[in-house]
Each structure stands twice: as C-alpha cells, then as structure tokens.
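Board notes (copied after class):
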Amino acid sequence: MEISTEKIAADCIKAINEKIRNLKTLNIIVAGKTGVGKSTLINSVFREQLVETGIGRPVTDHMRKISKKGFPLNIYDTRGFELGKDAQTEVKNEVLNTIRQGLVEKDVNQAIHCIWYCINNASNRIEPEEIQWLRDFAEENKVTQVPVIIVLTQSFSKKHAKEMQDMIINENLDVVQVVPVLALDYEIDEEYVIKSYGLDTLISVMSEALPEELIDTLQNVQKASLEEKKRRAHAVVATATAAAFGEGFTPIPFADSALLIPTQVGMIASITAIFGLDVSKSIITAFVSSTLGAGGATIAGRAIVSNLCKLIPVAGSITGGTISGATAGLLTTALGEAYIKLMEAVYKGDISDEAIGTKAGQEQIKILFKEQLIEEKNSEGKKFKLFP
C-alpha cells in the first residue's frame, strides 16, 4: 500500500484541525483584591492577550467572563474585591454559584476547573480577612472540590516571597499550592532588571491539579512553560510508540506497514495542538517528505525501513521483508521526538516556515530525524535487546 507524502500531509492537517477543534474548554476563576495584578498575570500566562482586547461580558455585579472565539479558555475575573465583609460575602457567593451552575450543566466545558486566588506579595502582608475568606470558601467548596491555587503576584523579592509562602502554608489552608510569581521583568534601573519567574511553576502545579482530559487544553493555551509543553508531548510520543509496538508485535509485511499511519498522524496532531502553533501545510509537507522520503513512500514503509537498515546495524528486527513491533516502535518514537524538536524550534522562532520549505531546511530535518533514530537505537534498542 503506497501513500504519497502529500496525502499524509493532508491527513495530518485534517487531524490537527480536528484535534484543536475538539479540545475541552478550560475554565478558571481569578479572584483577589483590586490592584493585585490579575490582568498582567492572565496576559503573561496565556498565548492570547485576553485582557488587553477588552473582551469580557459581565456575569454578575462582581464578575466578568473573558473569552475569545476559537480559543478553548474562559477566565472568570472577579472585580472589586475589597476588605468589607459584605463585599467578601458577595464575591464568595458569586464564585460558589458560578461553580454550581457549571456542575448543573454536567458538561466539562461548562464546569469551573481551577481557582487562582491572587495576593500582592509586594504589599508585604496578607490580611487576616483574606485568610478567613479562604477558610470560609474551602468549607463550602468541600462538595465541589474545585482546586484553589494561591498566586503571590509581584514577588520582586524571592526571599520575601518565600517568607510569605511559608506563612500561608502554615495556615493549613485547603489549597493545592502557594506559588510566588513575577509575571513580567521588572526594571530597577538601567543596570539591573529582576527577571520574571514562577509562571512555569504555576503551569506545573495546574498540570497536577487538573483532570487528564484538560491537560492538552492547558498546554495549548499556555505560553509560560515550554518545558511543560515538551513534557506533555513526550508523553504523547510514548503512548503512540506503545500503540505502534502493539500494531507491529506480529511482523508486518512492508506492503502493509501503512497500517501504522493513523497512529503516527494522530501523534503529530496531538503534538501540534500541545504547542499551540498555527502550523501551515508547508511545514507538515516538508516534515513528512524529509523524514519519510518523497515519491510515494509510506509513513513506515519500505523506503524508510530500508534507510534504517543502512543507517543502523540491526539484528533480528527487520527480517524476511517484515517490520517488527520493536522497529515500528523505534520509528514512531524517532518520528515523534524529531517533530517535537521541530516544533520547539518554530515555537522559539529559531526557524521560519520559509526556511523549512527550502532545500537546506528539509536537509536539516532529515539530519534531525537520522540523529533521533540513532539516539533511539542506543536507548530503546538495548532495552528490547534487538540491536548489537
């Protein structure tokens, strides 16, 4: 079964669009006193500048919903939270009612999944009223159990942030974590700038707190942690490799190796969605043709397996005109890891669409894939005891 790289590229684009379209919607409530830097935090974490666009509609007297069409994220921003007891009670009730309304819908896209409670670390104190608010909220949140993360915003001094973090932790509040952050670089003078930090930790904490079905969405919408995107993408490759190993456990004739295509196309789609990039067909076509060979080669077919034989001395994994499970797994891993590295380069701006489409760009992708094959041979090959 021979399938052209153009067909595979088209299948990848279709799968990417479908994957992104089917991402669950992540819903976060952001609460805290006025002036704690919620807007800066939101714009620094997510790849769309939601607050600056002015998009937002009132949900209650103290809350607005911030969203953007086609972007699987809703921010419920509480406003006007002051120290007055009445204002505190109103905000608490509105947050709880929003959570309950989401549960009534029995739809993950409508439910509230996380709460950020923001405290301005630069104020040098946390008001006793805020501690009490969090205790009262936790008591009423026992049934819904929406995870709460305390975010210490404007944490210019890491030493002071650690002190406040420890103090809040000692209050034994029912929260997932206390995370100090400095959302943007802060210039003291022309010679000294405090670098932003903590946003990657916030994403890591959220990755642990959110249900599995929302992790791809989180990685798609966030821009604060490349490492978290890569970690999730590596997990996708591992899953696809396991599937490919199963598909190839019984030796597959070269002619039938196209059976692996859906697994590998799905892997590429998932990785693309995680990185949140607008990947053009030209990038996908360049990647497919560079790694899989042009001129009608299948994604795990005769051409690439033959090239693998030339590249790596293999004992027992490619015999009698067949591809074994271990070989299928190795090819899938190398393909996925090479694609992650390509997405990382595009994400960081190290390579452009135009450069990828050139002869030199495609040659670089070929080299990247071959290096990944050798790396996987040295690690996984020993594991499966199939290589000398």
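Comment from the instructor: The radius of gyration is 25 Å. The first helix runs from residue 5 to 21.
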